[in-house]
Input
Amino acid sequence: MHGSLEVLRTQYGGFLALIVIGGLAGWVAGMILRIRHGVLTNVIVGVAGAWIGSELADLAHVTVHGTIEHFVAALVGSAALLYIWQLINKRG
Output
């Protein structure tokens, strides 16, 4: 039991958490903006959105700590990324 919990404290555990939180954030952002895409796209959008969300939080001088706050930052970044993607695709 302790072995599986120890994995989350390693560098790979942080990466796994990024994938899970990013995937969920990408999926929720897609649901909010009514954009359907696959699991891999959810993860990619969510991970990129997590980076964008953390940069936006830094610009706003907001400190992000904890799983829920990281999820919210990833969700905001993912929604912004998908919104910009929609704007670009409507032009083309």
Notes: Residues 1-8 have pLDDT under 50 and may be disordered. Residues 19-91 form one domain.
